[in-house]
């Protein structure tokens, strides 16, 4: 089983994350930010990665530390569970429709973190989650997981749908990328021999 636990404790947040890359999308999520919880639940359910995420953060300050540190902990857990990445498909890409919205997500579990994120918003909050935290989540996750991640809104107008389309797209692309390729289950998917 490709599993990992991360315990991240700072003066700003206390976080416990467990993941199972070979799960069925079971989740238990509590960050103190309702819409953020909903997005992590979508990430788990549609990637089929079991996730248990418990975050206690300094929400009396703002949502930055809670969002960033949760993303880092999830990314670190995914990276740890992948270990040497032997046998993974490595790449994933999807078009993610949600009603009037269509997003494109492509990623490479490369060991070279990078984010290109093109998600325009017309509101500053969805529920109580600040929309500027959406890109920050993706950036922090990609950095911690060692993933090259591209997310782009092709079209759409409902801000809730835009965010959910992006998270579901990340989930489906991640599911493809972490799957074991039965044709090369014993090999590192790189000509360098390391990722």
UniProtKB/TrEMBL annotation:
Pathway where it operates: Amino-acid biosynthesis; L-histidine biosynthesis; L-histidine from 5-phospho-alpha-D-ribose 1-diphosphate: step 6/9
Q: Where in the cell is the protein located?
A: Cytoplasm
Q: Which Gene3D superfamilies match?
A: Imidazole glycerol phosphate dehydratase, domain 1
What is this protein's record name?
Answer: Imidazoleglycerol-phosphate dehydratase
Transmembrane spans: none
Q: Which family does it belong to?
A: Belongs to the imidazoleglycerol-phosphate dehydratase family.
Provide GO CC annotations from the record.
Answer: cytoplasm
Q: Which reaction does it catalyse?
A: D-erythro-1-(imidazol-4-yl)glycerol 3-phosphate = 3-(imidazol-4-yl)-2-oxopropyl phosphate + H2O
Question: Per the UniProt entry, what species is this protein from, by scientific name?
Answer: Sphingobium limneticum
Q: Which HAMAP family match?
A: HisB (MF_00076)
UniProt KW keywords: Amino-acid biosynthesis, Cytoplasm, Histidine biosynthesis, Lyase
* Chief subcellular location: cytoplasm
EC number of the protein? 4.2.1.19
Superkingdom of the organism of origin: Bacteria
Q: Per UniProt, what is one GO molecular function of this protein?
A: imidazoleglycerol-phosphate dehydratase activity
Q: A GO BP term, please?
A: L-histidine biosynthetic process
What SUPFAM superfamilies does its record include?
A: Ribosomal protein S5 domain 2-like (SSF54211)
Query: Which gene name does the record give?
Result: hisB
């Amino acid at each position: 089983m490709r599993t990992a636990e991360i315990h991240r404790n700072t003066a700003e947040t206390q976080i416990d994350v467990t993941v199972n890359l070979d799960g069925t999308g079971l989740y238990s999520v509590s960050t103190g930010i309702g819409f953020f919880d909903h997005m992590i639940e979508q990430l788990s359910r549609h990637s089929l990665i079991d996730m248990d995420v418990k975050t206690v953060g300094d929400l009396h300050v703002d949502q930055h530390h809670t969002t960033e540190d949760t993303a880092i902990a999830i990314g670190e857990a995914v990276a740890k569970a992948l270990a040497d990445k032997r046998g993974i498909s490595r790449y994933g890409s999807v078009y993610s429709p949600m009603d009037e919205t269509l997003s494109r997500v492509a990623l490479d579990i490369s060991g070279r973190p990078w984010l290109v994120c093109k998600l325009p918003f017309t509101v500053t909050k969805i529920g109580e989650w600040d929309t500027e935290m959406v890109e920050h989540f993706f950036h922090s996750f990609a950095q911690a997981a060692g993933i090259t991640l591209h997310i782009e809104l092709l079209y759409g107008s409902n801000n809730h749908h835009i965010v959910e389309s992006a998270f579901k797209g990340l989930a489906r692309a991640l599911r493809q990328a972490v799957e074991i390729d039965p044709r090369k289950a014993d090999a590192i998917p790189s000509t360098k021999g390391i990722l």
